[in-house]
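HUMAN: Would you supply a protein with fold tokens?

ASSISTANT:
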Amino acid sequence: MKKFVAILLSIILISGVLSINASAESNSFTYDDLSYGTAGERNLLDLYLPENTQGEVGLVMYIHGGSWIAGDKTGYKTKLEEMCSKGYAAAAINYRYASLDTSLDDILDDVTSALTKIKSTAAENGIEINRCMIIGDSAGAHITLMYAYTRADEAPIEVVCVRGNSTPADLTLERFAVSTDTLLEISCVTGVTKKAFFINPDNVSKPAAQYYLKKYSPVSFASTAVPTILCHGGLDDGVPIAGAERMYQELLNADVPAELVVYPNSNHGLEADPDCTKYADELTYQYFEKYLDNDGWTIAENEPENFGKAPRMRRNLFNMIRGTFQWIKLKRKIRKLMQ
């Protein structure tokens, strides 16, 4: 017992952790408010490591929403416990809010710093983390896809797959850039895109604005994407589903494994379709098995009744007839049957 306590104290001194607990109930080491940068509470993360585990494990990391200027990691405790109970390392991070002083590139840098801290902290506990799946909500989903698609070369832990819930995948949509000369007077949150994405926002012309909006849209980077699950509300009036539909189609065109789960009765919070949530979670676990565990993968069962309304492709069909004219004809027939 004394030896165990001494080990814990050593970890605290080395890592600078504000609090750490070894829970017999959850079978995990819990790091609360672990600092990974210099931005105070905006550079904190929570990390759960499976106890009595040595060697390599996969990481599941969550990035919160809040229109790039709000929100925090506190809502993910149950998810972290669940993932850790299944043998994965699990983390949820804060990041710097977008402002005139903090760009999207700075936020993506925060993700790199967080992954670096997670990897080193796990190593101190004899755990090796080389692969991760990132799951993001809303603005966090945008950050998730942008990081996985554009920062692969610098990621200290390989991002092998992602899930985006209510993802702003295409910022060139009219919802984000208005048709008048007034630049970005409306967006997910008024002015947030203007603040986050432009160096001199007051002096940016509309053509330049469109350039930057495209530059910071995940849909522009399908060719460098990783396997992706997109979940989106059919009634979302904050982030148009058209962006998710286009993202999904671009992924298929780029031969990237992808699934689009449309929640037909839900708005931005995906709250009104529990069957779709169950199905999306089942797909997510299959992505864990395929890409984090490197095992086999099959399409989920128990598909919800309205799921067929999503413009999607079953993976087994895709593998059989990908890239052929026969696939194009079959997809059209399937869509007609699903309407």
Summary: Strands lie at 19-23, 28-35, 44-50, 55-63, 89-93, 127-137, 158-165, 228-233, 258-263. The longest helix spans residues 104-124. The chain is about 35% helix and 20% strand.
